[in-house]
Amino acid sequence: MESCYRIDNLKGVHLTHHKHILTSVVSLTALAAHYTTVLMAQEKEKAFWTESEVTALVNYLHEHRSERAEGGNFKMVTFNGAARDIAPKKTQGPQKTGKMCQTKWTSVSC
């Protein structure tokens, strides 16, 4: 059975066009790979936690302990709520996200 994706199945298309198409595909693939590398290399701003923010995080999670899933872990929606709750206490660094709260909770709960 012959594949429908073979280049020689493109009847009526000149060989030069085949080369242009192939070159374009390779270029787009390289460009996408480069873009992905650049996105991954961007340094994210590191969270700075004050004692009052950590205390507020622990208090929030204690108050919402009934929201824990099986296995005792909180869901991301709870960490997002914690981030909103501690936002007014921010003094420096970036605004805390749910992911930052989850990471901090993992470090303080061990």
Largest sheet: none
- Give the overall silhouette: elongated
Q: Give the rounded overall mean pLDDT.
A: 82
Question: What is the SS-derived class?
Answer: mainly alpha
Proportion of helical residues: 55-70%
Please give the number of β-strands: 0
How much of the residues is beta strand, in percent? under 5%
> Which sequence of SSEs, written as H and E, runs from N to C?
HHHH
How much is the radius of gyration in Å?
25 Å
The count of helical stretches stands at: 4
Features:
single chain; 110 residues; mainly alpha; 4 helices; 56% helix
What does it look like?
The structure is a single chain. The protein is mainly α and 110 residues long. 56% of the residues lie in helices and 0% in strands. The protein is built from four helices and no strands. The protein has helices spanning 15-41, 51-63, 76-86, 98-108. α2 (51-63) packs across α3 and α3 (76-86) crosses α4 (98-108). The longest helix is centred in the first third of the chain and has 27 residues, at 15-41. This is Myb/SANT-like domain-containing protein.
Question: Can you describe this structure in just a few lines?
Answer:
The protein is an all-alpha fold and 110 residues long.
Tell me the layout of helices and strands:
Blueprint: H1 15-41, H2 51-63, H3 76-86, H4 98-108
Protein name: Myb/SANT-like domain-containing protein
